[in-house]
Automatic annotation (TrEMBL):
Keyword Ion transport in record: no
Repeat region (ANK), residues: 471-503, 539-571, 717-749, 785-819
A Pfam cross-reference name: Ank
Identification of the protein by name: VPS9 domain-containing protein
One GO MF term: SNARE binding
InterPro entries assigned to the protein according to its UniProt record, in alphabetical order: Ankyrin_rpt, Ankyrin_rpt-contain_sf, UPF0507/Ank_repeat_27, VPS9, VPS9_dom_sf
Any coiled-coil regions, as ranges: none
Domain VPS9 per the UniProt entry, residue ranges: 240-376
UniProt GO cellular component terms: early endosome; late endosome; neuron projection; plasma membrane; transport vesicle; tubular endosome
PANTHER family: ANKYRIN REPEAT DOMAIN-CONTAINING PROTEIN 27 (PTHR24170:SF2)
Annotated CDD domains: ANKRD27_zf2
Amino acid sequence: MWSNYDEDLSQNEFFKQIKENHADILEKAAQEGWIVCVPRKGILKSEDFSMQLILDHILIPNSEDHYTTMNKKDVQLNKRCLILDQNNIFHTDVEVLFEETHYIEKSVKYLVWCVNSPLFLRRTRKHSLTPVVLTSIQDCIDFLYLEGFGRNLLESIQNLCVKFWTTHNNEFEMETLQSQKDSIGNLYSQCLQLCFKSDIIRDKCDKNINYLDNFKLSIETYMQYCLGKKLMYSVNTLEHFTDCIVNKIIRNSFNVGLEDLNISIDLNELIIDAKYEISRINSFITVLDKINCLSRIFNIFNNKTLKDNQTFYVTSDDYLQILIYLILKTNNPNWVANLTYIKEFQFTDNSQTNFFVVNLEAAISFIKSNEFLNTKKSSCDNTIFSKLYNKFKNKQNIAELYKLMQGEKAQLCHPLCSCPKCETKKPHDKPYKILNNLNQNFLIIASMENQLDFLEFLLTLDYEIDFQDDFGKTALHYAAEIGLQDILMLLINAQANVNILDNDKNTALHLACDRGHDNCVKALIYSSPFVEINLQNTSGETPLFLATRWGYFDIIKILLENGASVCIKNNRDLSIYKLSPNLYITKLFKQFGKQKSNNIIKEVINSTKTQDIILNISEACSNKLLTGLQQQGLTLGTPAKSPNELKKLDLLFKAIINNDLPLSCFYLGYNSNTLDYDNTKCHPLCTCNKCSNNEDDSVLASNITLDKFNVNMCNIEGFTPLHLAAKYGRTEILRILLDSGAPLNVCDNKTFYTPLHLAVMFQRVQTVKELLKCGNCNVDAQDVKGNTPLYYACVRNSNNLKIIESLLQNGADCQKRNCKEQTVLQICEVKNLFRVCRMLRESMGYPALAKLDKACSISNENYFDDDVNGFEFL
């Protein structure tokens, strides 16, 4: 029905018993729509079969999800589980494994549910007198229920556990391991004393040592079950630092394969089953269940017949290597905490389980030693690509490399021709022609192998820095994933796109956080002002989610300090608080949640043809932006309507970046003659030869004007040609765009940057002046964080006072508050930017304070530097 479990019910002894001896029940079930429940094979013994048990497994529908057995017992179906006796707080849920339809005749049929365990199994006193092996919490509950003559004993133990958490509510997680162990040991003693008040139980324990061991194990296991996951959470808090170290090693071991640990490839199918089993270890609450999980993993490999009909006899060394591989390939964030929990909170002596605990401890110790990391494979194999790469990476035979990169020149109709015939001749993407089988070029491989000099050389060859391989990853992705900070810094300085997504929609920041490279996280956040901290991948998870899952405390703190949201939920509707592995991280979330992220919301800007952009900003700021966007006169660009338009826009962007004015005019749809043409006459009625020729040329020029380009067209991120011209200081192109009707106050759809913002941020003085000449330029336009161009001029360009002066002369408001309710003047005062403060106060009309600032700046010029490096965006 819902599970992967399967069996042939015709061979099930319980079902055969019903078909052979109770055919009348099956006929009635077919007529009335009853459901026959059959416990899975091996769960019942033949002596358990009784008429009462059979009647308990025939369900009569009352409503959609409610049933009554033939013994008048209520059963409810919830999702894929049957809930028995809801009034009992110790009721058990029985999973429905699958369903089948069986036929008595061609048209007479009934429904059969295969269930994981029997419904309402009646246990008799004779069962308790036989030796019992307890393997799960359910076995322990059944044992105590029988020996305690009902639920009273279970409820008494549960009450003790509830009282324990009431008295240890706040301080238990912060106690030492020995203190926690002593407290739980005292609780265990209280539970035993409570049970031994019964003379019958005490007498049985005196007579049967096996019974005493089972009774103590049941008390311990049920006590841990009642304490719940909070006990494991406390151990996670204690071992958070060691688990963080182990997790970083595990997350960076993705290249380790079976052959690296001397594991036979024939065991691959068994390892798949073992992976599923070991991935469930955190779903178990008690020590007994966790140990039996390890036991089942061992039994998967013990004396198994392989494909070649050979029996595999597992040795201790074999099992240890297999266990190491399973730990490395399982996404479990708290192996050290699990080991501590199993070792320290098992109060009953069980020598049979020591083998599994010792092997788990040995596997974790081996992983902590980092020895297996030496098995990392080379990025290049023995192919033509690798031979060429090895030939060129030492920067030898550079002439050959240049020749290889250039290729043959194509003969086109004319230099700018784009007809189908010429398109096939063009050497498309020549620098990326040399690729390996994963579509990776030299730039990516050099980044992966930490070849800093060779990478720097390749960047001079006009390689596309954001080239993506088959996985959608760029060189920046791999540098962040491997943890190569120097490579990362070089790529960022070369204008690599820090927000580009791979096939799983992970940015470089996602990968750095997932692998635990705090140095790379700092490089991405502090070196690139455009990094998006709250982008979500295909699982709906931000970098903060990944860092939280693996317990990287330092990375979490960096992300929170730089605006990471704690209010986003992933695709499973889980918040960051639900994933918090320990108390220290939870406290960090609460601290930043109150200070910065309490009112964080998601705001989606929908545009007709562009992707949805999620913004995480404070509630007060979002209200100002959403209601004040139109009031500020800010507009959004027009999305490209087709791939051809997007391609043409991309070509225009490249021409603007390269400062190619003729080519830019061509893409904009202007003939260069029309731009340079001067049609002024000697006087309005002049008919001389010169004026007559100009008039004829004017008619001719008007006839050859090309199709005009939509100057307000934007790419996916919302940037228009005017943004690019302002960013790179292309003043001539900017004038043409403005004359063509480009909106001056257009903003992108992520950061709300206007062209003036970008011109100020990149210190384009002439461009700033050109923009300010336009009368409708909004000098106080606010971006997504509420910052105006004056803010960036003061904080980023405090040594270049010309931009600040131009903004102030054009009416920039230094008292305007951003989303943090801070003014530019307040920020400059905090950063000790005395010269800037003086200019701001002079513009406000405070000459006395300006003189004081001047005196301060002179007296402190040897101690303060107005140039603030590594500034933080507010």
